[in-house]
Write a structure and sequence with these properties.
Blueprint (H helix, E strand, L loop, with lengths): L4 H31 L4 E2 L1 H20 L2 H25 L3 E5 L4 E3 L3 E9 L9 E9 L3 E3 L4 E6 L6 E9 L3 E13 L5 E8 L2 E6 L5 H4 L1 H15 L8 E5 L11 H7 L3 E5 L6 E6 L13 H6 L4 H19 L4 E8 L2 E8 L4 H9 L9 H6 L9 E6 L4 H10 L6 E5 L5 H9 L3 E4 L13
Parallel strand pairs: 3-11, 14-15, 14-17, 17-18, 18-19
Antiparallel strand pairs: 1-10, 2-4, 4-8, 5-7, 5-9, 6-8, 9-10, 9-11, 12-13, 15-16
Helix pairs in contact: 2-3, 8-9, 11-12
């Protein structure tokens, strides 16, 4: 009698492997069904379902087998539609590719949504509606929806999205949804396939001709002169000669005096640092010399503040090319907020400008600068505001006393008294008026 135990063990292993595969696919299918909304009947679907149930009920009452059969057929048709819609919607996979999540006002955000169906050979071939939702920070340049076809023998479906950024802030792109319908149009599934993604819209720039880049360059060059950039003979250091040092660097006078060859080692100072302080007080942007109609349209100063944010971004971009570091300082609800940037990347500063809001309870920039100057930055100061009084100008000068040159950038021209205070302190004044306002800038 032969031993049946090896055969039994092989059958047991095969049965265990089959059970493991079935369990794995079962868990995967359950997970896909859990993520898939249940189909909702369309108007046609509700009509067919109501007629089917009515025929079944009427046929049972009237003992009419034909009516019962016709009603059951309609109900089964709806059930089959549910199964078909779930079979298409549950295996769907999708992804979003976007080259960047920070765009500038006026630039176009571009993204791509790729949808893949089931890889099973006998899976149904279906036509789907893919739609990408956009925040109100964007205006779509093309329809953010497309009818695509998926199936086992078709390539992944692609939806290209292009949207123009029109306002600064943090917005959402997505979620991307797919609409699945059965072959008879009785049922519909709207399934989110890609989660929403945050996109930061940073302020744009004002033309540098209006910003007077020469004033910024002059203020920075004054800082560079103070720190001794350029490596003159006065700021050079001497060290003993090492093999390989150029002969032209030998300091013959000091070498003769010391009896050993010494060479010049010039110390190149780093470019200066800069603070961009943005005034977020609402009162600084109200009633800035507009005519009566425009003033009524911007009573809260929101338009003027948005222009000041653009000016601050332009100043930060201009200074980043001339300084080693730029720090954005604003007054936040919980205290002063700082965002650091450098010449190689201003993303943090610009993202900070995307988040600022005008407030009625904000402090003046001089109070914020008292806690920043001398501790974080030792270079120039650029203050962006809507209106500056003589008292505030004197406070600015005292708050930055001992630091290097400063620039006051306003959206209205300051009074001659304010200019005199700032001129005597070595500050430069740049006026970038809000489009549609007067340039004399008297405050009513």
């Amino acid at each position: 009698m032969t031993d049946q135990r090896p055969v039994a063990r092989r059958l047991s292993r095969r049965a265990g492997a089959v059970g493991s595969v079935l369990a794995r696919y079962g868990r995967r299918g359950t997970g896909m069904l859990r993520r898939t909304p249940f189909p909702r009947p369309t108007v046609r679907g509700w009509t067919v379902l109501a007629v089917g149930l009515g025929l079944v009920g009427g046929g049972l009452v009237a003992s009419m087998g034909v009516a019962v059969s016709a009603g059951l057929l309609l109900v089964v048709l709806v059930v089959l539609g549910v199964v078909a819609a779930l079979a298409v919607a549950a295996p769907l996979r999708a992804s979003r590719q976007a080259p960047r999540v920070v765009v500038q006002v006026g630039e176009v955000y571009r993204g791509r949504v790729t949808v893949r169906g089931s890889g099973v050979r006998f899976a149904p071939r279906s036509t789907l509606l893919v739609r990408e939702q956009l925040d109100d920070l964007f205006v779509s340049t093309a329809e953010a929806a497309a009818l695509v076809t998926i199936g086992p023998a078709t390539p992944p479906a692609v939806l290209d999205v292009e949207a123009l950024a029109i306002r600064r802030g943090r917005g959402l792109v997505g979620p991307a949804t797919v609409r699945v319908e059965d072959a008879f149009g009785l049922l519909r599934i709207d399934r989110p396939v890609v989660a929403a993604e945050e996109v930061v819209v940073v302020p744009g720039s004002t033309p540098m001709s209006g910003l007077d880049a020469g004033a910024l360059a002059g203020a920075v060059s004054a800082d560079e002169g103070r720190v001794g950039q350029g490596g003159s003979a006065d700021d050079s250091e001497l060290r003993p000669y090492r093999p390989g040092d150029p002969i032209r660097r030998v300091h013959w006078g000091q070498s003769a005096k010391r009896g050993v060859l010494h060479v010049r080692q010039t110390t190149q100072a780093q470019p200066p640092e800069a603070v961009v302080a943005l005034d977020v007080r609402r009162e600084a942007y109200q009633q800035l010399g507009r005519d009566d109609l425009a003033e009524l349209a911007d009573l809260g100063g929101d338009q003027a503040f948005e222009h000041a944010v653009v000016v601050a971004a332009s100043v930060a971009r201009a200074l980043a090319a001339r300084t080693s570091r730029v720090v954005l300082v604003t007054d936040g609800p919980g205290g002063d907020v700082r965002h650091n940037g450098d010449a190689g990347g201003l993303s943090e500063v610009l993202v900070g400008l995307a988040d600022v809001h005008v407030r009625s309870d904000a402090r003046h920039v001089t109070e914020v600068l008292h806690g920043v100057r001398g501790r974080d930055v030792h270079g120039m100061t650029a203050v962006v505001t809507g209106h500056c009084t003589a008292e505030q100008a004197a406070e600015l000068v005292s708050a930055t006393n001992g630091s290097s040159r400063g620039v006051l950038t306003t959206v209205t021209a300051p009074d001659p008294v304010v200019r005199g205070i700032l001129d005597r302190a070595g500050w430069r004044v740049v006026v970038v008026p809000v489009p549609g306002t007067t340039t004399d800038g008297h405050r009513r």
